[in-house]
Amino acid sequence: MKKIVLLFVLAVSIASCKSTSATNTKTDTKAQVAIKGNWVLSSVTYPGSEYIRVLSFQIADSKCFEGSTWKFISNNNKGDMALTDPNCPSFSSPFTWFVNKDGQFVLKLLNAGEKAKKVRDGYVLTLANQTETSFQLLDKIEVGGKMTNVVYQFNKN
């Protein structure tokens, strides 16, 4: 009897420790609809930005994203983006995205013609300061042994 109780307690403990993934939570439809449309990523800021470089989305220097254009379609969670700075690498990509109930913005960059279910890697950022004409995405990075935010500022186009 003691073994059965012990096994039951162990099973409950394991089940209660199960983590939830950003992709396994419900979507925040209201936040998604507010993002629908054409946007410009107007600035990328973080402490120490004048001294250190950050590779954003494993594509280019974070400053190359300033001025980039982003189109978000909320009814099918798709979109596309393009870097526009002539001093930076040329890059454009379709993507899938959604906002979950925890305020997390989940983004998957795709290659042309590629299905999102075939892409294993993506990015989870925090949605912040959302208004009708602007919003921010926050990405956590480690700088000098401390966690800090990279702030991507979007403005409606």
From TrEMBL:
Family annotation (PROSITE patterns): PROKAR_LIPOPROTEIN
Domain of life: Bacteria
Pfam families: Lipocalin_4
InterPro entries linked: Lipocalin-like
Segments crossing the lipid bilayer: none
Coiled-coil features, chain-numbered ranges: none
Keyword tags: Signal
Signal peptide range in chain numbering: 1-21
Lipocalin-like domain sequence ranges: 35-112
Name used for this protein in its record: Lipocalin-like domain-containing protein
